[in-house]
Amino acid sequence: MTGEPVLELDGVVKHFGPVRAVDGVSLTIAPGEVLGLVGESGSGKSTLGRCVVALTPVTAGRVLLNGVDLVPLSRRRLRPLRRGVNIVFQDPSGSLNPRMTVADIITEPLRLHRIGNPASRRERLRELLDAVGLRAELARRHPHELSGGQRQRVSLARALSAGPALLVADEPTSALDVSVQAAVLNLIARLQAELGFACLFITHDLAAVEFLAQRIAVMYLGQLVEVAGRAELFATPRHPYTQALLSAAPVPDPAVQRTRRRIVLTGDIPSPVRPPTGCRFHTRCPLAETRCLVEEPLLRPVGPNGTLVACHLVAPDGTAPPLTA
Ligand code: SF4
Fold first, then answer.
1. % helix / strand / coil in the chain, to the nearest 5?
2. What CATH code is carried by the domain that includes residue 101?
3. Alpha carbon 16 to chain centroid distance?
4. Digits of tens for pLDDT over the chain (325 positions)?
5. Does some domain include residue 1?
6. Is residue 321 part of a domain?
7. Cβ–ligand 1 contact at 282 (below 6 Å)
8. Which of 212, 224, 231, 262 is 20 to 30 A (C-alpha) from 252?
9. Is 318 part of any domain?
10. Whole domain around residue 24: which residue ranges?
11. CA 248, CA 244: separation in Å to the nearest integer?
């Protein structure tokens, strides 16, 4: 990675009372990089996304945006920095003000950050509508007059209107009809390539991260268990949880799909109120040994490509024991 990261998370913790939703996450995102964050529901990935955009205050740790730690800042000092990061949510209906027109929704960040004048904002609105594939006449409509896919396009245009360096996309396609999911995913990929913003792409959909992300972080019960380049992760998943996740994902090639052995994890994700001792994955891990119950594995570099894994059984050269069904 070259240059200063757009985002640096350093030991981020977020507890909601006794619930340890995020429990010590450190990672960086480089300018223009797309990092996919995957995990089951309940893994804490959406909470982490909200911490990144300062919608949820962290319990401990640092959240650095372009080198500036957002955590100690007052709301007033935070406001100008919010221009640098924005978020798109799973359900666009909840994040779009039903009383505002599409034009007002999209240009609101420009007014809040005092960017441009009314004429330049109208011009920017035209550019943004065009960029997200919406017809200009939709600008006068309200959110309830749009389809789900159109609403998500409006959310994207709004999130990008002030030119953020980082976009957090939290399951941006999972509330949409299957038929429009691919179109919105393609749109995010095209806009990211054209505009060059970095992206934290949060999803449970492995096919989506394989399509979009350059690096992938796997989260389990509030912690990262593996961080690797896309090709490396899909070719050589090392953490037993990553191996299980990938084994359950459909493969486009039916011949490969037939030879695939699906590893079914038993049990649900444990409660984040009382996470298991030692390795948090030990209650579901087919390879768990005695020390996994008492000794917490640290996220550490393995192999030649900077992959990070938190598992006692992965050797320093990256060799990992395969899971069997
Ligand atoms: Fe499984 Fe032990 Fe590795 Fe945890 S540390 S993933 S329980 S083998």
1. 35, 20, 45
2. 3.40.50.300
3. 20
4. 457 999 999 999 999 999 999 999 999 999 999 999 999 888 999 999 999 998 899 999 999 999 999 999 998 999 888 889 999 998 877 789 999 999 999 999 999 999 999 999 999 999 999 999 999 999 999 999 999 999 999 999 999 999 999 999 999 988 888 888 898 899 999 999 999 999 999 999 999 999 999 999 999 999 999 999 999 999 999 999 999 999 877 666 666 666 666 777 877 889 999 999 999 999 999 999 999 999 999 999 999 999 999 999 999 999 998 887 5
5. no
6. no
7. yes
8. 224
9. no
10. 7-309
11. 6
Q: Which candidate, 147, 105, 137, 128, places its Cα nearest to that of 187?
A: 128
Task: Tell me the one-letter amino acid at 46.
Answer: S
- If you measure from the C-alpha of residue 274 to the centroid of ligand 1, how many angstroms do you get, rounded to a whole number? 18
Nearest residue CA, atom 3 of ligand 1? 311
Question: Using a 6 Å cutoff on CB, does residue 225 contact ligand 1?
Answer: no
* Ligand 1 center to 241 CA (angstroms): 9
The alpha carbon of 137 and the centre of ligand 1 are apart by a number of angstroms equal to 55
Residues 6+ apart with CB under 8 A from 161: 106, 107, 108, 109, 110, 124, 128
Number of domains in the chain: 1
Between the CA of 149 and the centroid of ligand 1 the distance, in Å, is: 41
pTM: 0.93
* 185 occurs within a structural domain: yes
Instruction: Check pocket membership of 297 for ligand 1, CB cut-off 6 A.
Output: yes
